Amino acid sequence: MQTTMNSRTIARQLSPLIFVALLAACATEKQKPVVPEPAQPAAEQPAPPVAAPVQQPPVTQNPLHDPNSILFKRSVYFAYDKFDVTGEYRPLVEAHAKYLVAHGGAKVAIQGNCDERGSREYNLALGQRRADAVGKIMTLLGVPSRQIETVSFGEEKPKSLGHDEAAWAENRRSDIVYEREN
Q: ∠ CA 15-21-26 to the nearest 5 degrees?
């Protein structure tokens, strides 16, 4: 009788194992062999799919460095012995003012310059009036005064080294110089 119990005990212990083995055998699926498709003649083969070109986001160039932008221009020119900003240069000053308002962290130095005619003291004073004239327009257009510094170089920083009207006209100017760009 003891042998019968042992066989029953063994059968009870093995039955879950046998059940699991049967389930595993049923769950296993045989892999089908891969049969290559017959090659089509070159004329009949479909063209491989063409991937759509990946569109890159547009590179945003700083308008201060873009030669096509009005902000690339930085000089306001003046008539002989004058410091009023003419209508020709108003759009330039307005564009820089708009940029400064939109970029509150940006700062400019407006550098007034003169030609070589006149005394040193007179040219320093005239250069300052020219720089102040550009700065005043910018502040009237909403640029905080903390973003603008005006300075005169008089005749000390000529753009042109000539001694004729063309050279003098180049030197009668105010330059708009952005901080960290000079």
A: 125
In whole angstroms, what is the distance from residue 118 CA to residue 130 CA? 15
Location of structure tokens 């310059």 = 113
CB 172, CB 113: distance < 8 Å: yes
How many CB atoms within 10 Å of residue 115? 25
| Cβ(174)–Cβ(113) below 8 Å | yes
Predicted structure pTM score? 0.66
Q: What are the beta bridge partners of residue 75?
A: 175
Tens-place pLDDT, residues 4-50: 556 566 556 656 656 555 555 555 555 566 555 655 555 566 666 66
Strands 108-113 and 173-178 turn out to be: antiparallel
* d(C-alpha 182, C-alpha 70), whole Å: 19
What does the DSSP 8-state code read for residue 119? Answer: -
**What domains can you pick out in the chain, each with its CATH number?**
70-178 (3.30.1330.60)
Closest by alpha carbon to 172, among 83, 71, 54? 83
Interatomic CA distance for residues 179 and 19, integer angstroms: 81
